[in-house]
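Budget justification aside, the reviewers requested a transparent look at the raw inputs and outputs of the sequence design task funded under Objective 1. We therefore reproduce one unedited record. The lines immediately below are the structure tokens for a 340-residue chain.
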């Protein structure tokens, strides 16, 4: 370890159970963080500062002004530019710890994406805002034997739990995903930044423990930061006998057909990602759209424009976010009209 690194991590290495050997383990670890919103930015910031050697960030969205209240790696400039969250987060983390390798994936987390990862992570962290993606992470991590840490927060409340290959999984608790309307979202219930901080403090501490080979905290961490309630609820240690993943050898979220049009959680927006799309060159697309649309912007990462009462953000390859529309069928029709 260099003198500079020894000085950088000196306070952390003094924690019982870490030391220089533990710091070396963190430096050699690879973590995948899915979602670069409130949860994901807090996690990425903490783990980069802790010296986790390789961090992969996956996010499909762009930075907006409403993100700045709680998503700590973004600035007003990022929101004004509409930068992809994974890119903006990577660039800010590079200024925090240049010794950490941060890889940005501007992509939807799908089964295809996970299969194509350039390296298998030691740990996966949930920074998402929807249950379909969480169930995909659950099934893929169980299939691959990789631990992952679930987390969620809404209003003033939050919850998190560690899921390892030898214990109960998410489907053991909830065989099918809860309806989003039943659990709420930040659009309907709001979100307090300190609820995010509380949940990700547990999540990142458990992440460091797992990477160091320590025992996880068994149970579900829950909190309500307004009521001052913090607890770890007991959780069945063994997988449920009727769990299709743990005891059936099936992985529904991996094998099911991908959805091409997805309404973004709590947003008047739809993502279109048709698997049969033709590749798009952004510069060519911008040239073709010039004069036919409004507010046309071309950047190295995306093309933005407004037309038919909808704002488009188009990424290399053809994936697009359509803002100002909530009906997936209309979104797909608009996509076909302007991008095919």
């Amino acid at each position: 370890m260099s003198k500079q690194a020894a000085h950088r991590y000196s306070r952390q290495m003094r924690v019982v159970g870490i030391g220089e050997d533990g710091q070396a383990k963190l430096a050699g670890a690879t973590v995948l963080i899915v979602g670069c919103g409130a949860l994901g930015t807090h996690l990425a910031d903490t783990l980069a500062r802790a010296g986790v050697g390789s961090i992969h960030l996956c996010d499909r969205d762009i930075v907006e002004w409403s993100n700045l209240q709680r998503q700590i790696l973004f600035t007003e400039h990022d929101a004004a530019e509409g930068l992809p969250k994974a890119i903006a987060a990577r660039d800010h983390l590079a200024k925090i710890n240049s010794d950490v390798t941060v890889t940005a994936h501007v992509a939807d987390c799908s089964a295809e994406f996970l299969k194509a990862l350039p390296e298998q992570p030691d740990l996966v962290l949930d920074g998402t805002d929807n249950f379909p993606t969480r169930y995909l992470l659950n099934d893929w991590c169980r299939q691959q034997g990789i631990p992952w840490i679930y987390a969620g927060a809404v209003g003033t409340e939050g919850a998190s739990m560690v899921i390892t290959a030898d214990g109960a999984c998410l489907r053991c608790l909830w065989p099918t995903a809860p309806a989003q309307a039943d659990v709420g979202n930040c659009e309907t219930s709001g979100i307090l930044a300190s609820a995010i901080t509380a949940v990700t403090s547990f999540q990142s501490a458990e992440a460091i423990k797992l990477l160091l080979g320590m025992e996880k905290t068994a149970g579900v961490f829950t909190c309500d930061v307004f009521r001052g309630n913090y607890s770890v609820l007991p959780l069945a240690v063994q997988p449920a006998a009727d769990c299709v993943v743990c005891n059936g050898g099936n992985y529904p979220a991996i094998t099911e057909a991908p959805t091409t049009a997805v309404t973004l959680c709590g947003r008047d927006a739809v993502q279109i990602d048709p698997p049969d799309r033709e590749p798009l060159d952004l510069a060519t697309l911008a040239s073709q759209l010039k004069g036919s649309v409004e507010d046309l912007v071309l950047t190295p990462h995306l093309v933005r424009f407004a037309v038919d009462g909808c704002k488009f953000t188009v990424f290399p390859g053809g994936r697009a976010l359509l803002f100002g529309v909530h009906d997936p069928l209309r979104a797909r029709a608009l996509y076909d009209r302007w991008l095919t």
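Residues 261-339 form a domain with the TATA-Binding Protein fold (CATH 3.30.310). The longest strand covers residues 148-154. Computational costs for records of this kind are itemized in the attached budget.
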